Q: What sequence folds into this?
């Protein structure tokens, strides 16, 4: 099994952090944008979108980060990162869709804006904070939804947000940042001088 990735982006980081946190037997391959690897025919056969992350498992090719997360959690049930019952799985899917349909666009808009107005993001942070009241992780135990959402709040922009009004979220984010997988995928700025 091989994961094609570029750690610095949240969609890539969440999958790579999941792999590294659980020590999954997945070869991690960092693509070369300098060599335009994602535009080459061999890569386009894996993901016709020409983007990462992408996963190859034998003759199966999978792209879209949240699909990769749930696939890995299914293939490696020892992670206990994905419930097996219909309601538990629907709850996970709800949060994965929330991340891709609400949190990701809000973070993207904030990143693109010249004036950094976080007013549209604050209600989303409050929703997370409410969900985390009395819980260590989003759905009780560590799961794919935690990886999917935390990666967005660990971005440069996410680290600049004010979490003082959302203490349960702030504590969860600190726990997530300390996980082995997120520590291993922390990208440090190059040293100058």
A:
């Amino acid at each position: 099994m091989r994961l094609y990735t570029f750690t610095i982006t949240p969609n890539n980081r969440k999958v790579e952090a999941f792999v590294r946190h659980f020590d999954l037997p997945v070869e991690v391959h960092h693509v070369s944008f300098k060599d335009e690897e994602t535009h080459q025919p061999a890569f386009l056969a894996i993901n016709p979108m020409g983007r990462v992350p992408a996963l190859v498992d034998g003759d199966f090719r999978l792209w879209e980060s949240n699909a990769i997360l749930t696939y890995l959690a299914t293939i490696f049930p020892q992670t206990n990162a994905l419930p097996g019952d219909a309601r538990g799985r629907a709850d996970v899917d709800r949060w994965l869709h929330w991340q891709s349909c609400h949190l990701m666009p809000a973070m993207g808009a904030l990143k693109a804006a010249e004036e950094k107005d976080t007013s549209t993001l604050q209600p989303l942070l409050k929703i997370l904070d409410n969900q985390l009241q009395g819980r260590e992780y989003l759905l009780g135990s560590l799961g794919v939804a935690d990886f999917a959402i935390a990666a967005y709040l660990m971005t440069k922009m996410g680290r600049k947000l004010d979490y003082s009004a959302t203490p349960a979220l702030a504590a969860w984010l600190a726990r997530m940042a300390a996980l082995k997988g997120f520590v291993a995928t922390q990208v440090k700025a190059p040293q100058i001088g």
